[in-house]
Amino acid sequence: MKTKPLLVGQKRIEKTLESLGEMIFQHQELEDYKHTVAEKMKENGISEEIIRKCLV
User: Fold this and answer.
1) CA distance 10 to 56
2) CA 9, 14, 17, 19: dihedral to nearest 10 degrees?
3) C-alpha to C-alpha distance for 29 and 32, rounded to whole angstroms
4) What is the C-alpha to C-alpha distance for residues 51 and 29, in angstroms, rounded to an integer?
5) What's the predicted TM-score (pTM) here?
6) Mean pLDDT value across the chain
């Protein structure tokens, strides 16, 4: 019976790590998107200052 709470705790840890991994992946996707948008803005002649303010 003592192993059952350990398994429940292990499953919670695994779910938490999976969620954290998804959040990190989403954050990286957002950063990549912001970089792409910044490059397009530069190509269209928008100043670095405005780009920084827009993409905070």
Assistant:
1) 37
2) -100
3) 5
4) 18
5) 0.68
6) 90
